[in-house]
Design a protein that fits this description.
Mean pLDDT: 86
Number of strands: 3
Strand content: 15-25%
Number of domains: 1
Structural class: alpha+beta
Strand order of the largest sheet: 1-2-3
Radius of gyration: 20 Å
Length: 145
């Protein structure tokens, strides 16, 4: 029984770590999906949030599956940052690529870094998508990446 009491904290740390890695992978998949969705809208020069006065980037940020990704929270240190830009060599003509990145900073095992341990457990997760323009981009002038 004493052996179990000695091993239990490490076992719980491993189990909670596995759950936290699964949560982080889910957030990364969501970022990739959001980047793909934004790249598709940018490729056809459509902004579904125009009616509510939002830019395409702002609208995509609000489409995150998790409220924690939309506005920051316990594990996410800040809300998603969506960037639309032209890769080097792209002039914005039809057929040229347009690149979208969605970034968020994730804090692994937040309960350890918020207490007295202060472990450096932050990692920046990025979802990226590149698509070819099918229509001239008319939603502003994105910068070069």
């Amino acid at each position: 029984m004493i052996e179990f009491a000695l091993v239990l904290p490490f076992l719980l740390l491993v189990v909670l770590g596995m759950l936290d890695v699964g949560k982080a992978m889910n957030y990364r998949n969501d970022l990739t999906h959001l980047a793909n969705e934004a790249a598709r809208y940018a490729a056809v020069s459509k902004n579904p949030g125009a009616g509510s006065g939002m830019t395409l980037e702002e609208w995509i940020e609000q489409q995150a599956a998790s409220g924690e990704l939309r506005s920051g929270g316990e594990s996410i240190t800040a809300a998603i940052d969506v960037t639309i830009c032209y890769p080097p060599g792209s002039s914005g003509a039809i057929g040229d690529p347009i690149k979208v990145t969605a970034d968020a900073t994730y804090r692994f095992l937040d309960f350890l870094s918020s207490g007295r341990f202060h472990l450096p457990t932050e990692v920046t997760m990025t979802g990226t998508s590149i698509m070819r323009l099918e229509k001239a981009y008319s939603l502003g002038s994105p910068p070069t990446c």
